[in-house]
Amino acid sequence: MRTIFFIRHAKSSWDDPAIADFDRPLNDRGKRDAIYMARHLFDQKLSIDVFISSPAIRARKTALYFAKQYAVDKLVEKQELYLPSVQAFSQVIMQIDNQYHNLAIFSHNPGITEFVNRLTDTIRVDNVPTCGIFAVRVFLDNWADFGTATKQFLFFDYPSKFKIA
Asked: What pLDDT does 163 receive?
C-alpha cells in the first residue's frame, strides 16, 4: 500500500506580464498558503518519501516549502509535469523507484484536475485550486503497476477550506 499526494502549485504572481509562464514566481498569498498547507499535511503525521515537481518556478517553490517542512533536501524535477497531459502523470509515477512509498507530486492545471478525476469512482472535483492537495492510497508493490492498481480516495484539502485563502 502506497500514498500519493497530488498538489497543485500555490498562487503565482502576475505582477510582471513580461515574465514567461514558466518563470512566474509565487505571490505573497501563494507563499502563505504553501507554508500553511505543508504544515497541515505534516501535522497529520502523513509521511512523504520523495517530492517530485514540475520545474516551473511556481511549482518548484511550492514543493520546496513542503520539502522544508518535512526537512527533506532533495527535490526531483520532471519536465513532463509542466503543463502535463493526463498520461504524463502515469508515466512519471510508473518510473518511481520502488523504495519510495509516499509521493508528493507538484504540478499544474488543467492536467492535475483531469488526472485526479480519473483515479477513483468515488469523487470528482471541478477544480484542484492553487495549493490544493488530492490524496489517494494505491494498492500495489511496484510503481510500474500503477495503471492497473486499485486506488482509494483519502482526502481533498485546499487553502480556502481552512479559511486562509
From this structure: 75
